[in-house]
Amino acid sequence: MRFVDLALKHKWNEVKTLPADEAQVLFDIVSAAGFNPRKVAPGKLVGHYRDQDGSSTGETYPINSLCPFKVVSEEDGDHYFATGWLDCALRRAVYGSTRQNESREKLIEVMAEEIERSVPLEPIQLTPEGDLLREYLPSTMAFGMEYFVKHTRDENNLDSCVGIHMHCNCWMDRRRATSTHDAIVCRGCHLRVLFLKEVKTYSDLRQALASQRVQVPA
What we know:
By secondary structure, this protein is an alpha+beta fold. About 30% of the residues lie in helices and about 25% in strands. It has 5 helices and 12 strands.
């Protein structure tokens, strides 16, 4: 894996920028992890600590403490989560080698697993008009690697809290609707989508709703 080779090549505390071919390696791994970046560019990002009421304390913390590059989103803004993930990936490779004496082959295996795990659940179309269900914010995998997260998968069970109504950005719940159907209901706009109660997983829901749209007369 080119990323692991690049990670082991440099003393990253001394790196300020990279040649184009090495920057491309960073872009490629962020793309493989499902972030859809516009580009990577030299730069450091900081986050802001918040009080319980959500206001800023004025204190900051680094998003990318080791990696000298940040990720730029498709909208041409700073992509904080993708930048944090890239920094976690670089730290995992570098520290895995220098502090844990992990082999190149082991690091390649670890990074392949993290890339696969980082790809988010594909949003599920709920209505012909394009309403989408996306997953809740994923859970962190390990302390100190807060951008390595575990996403919902198609094979996961569809429980009472199912995710977020994309664009509306409110939670969606699964509720019993009739003797044969359940419904997904948005807490914000109150969109209500019926589906057969036998649906058990996100994959089942995706297929059931796709079938319902096919059956709707034009």
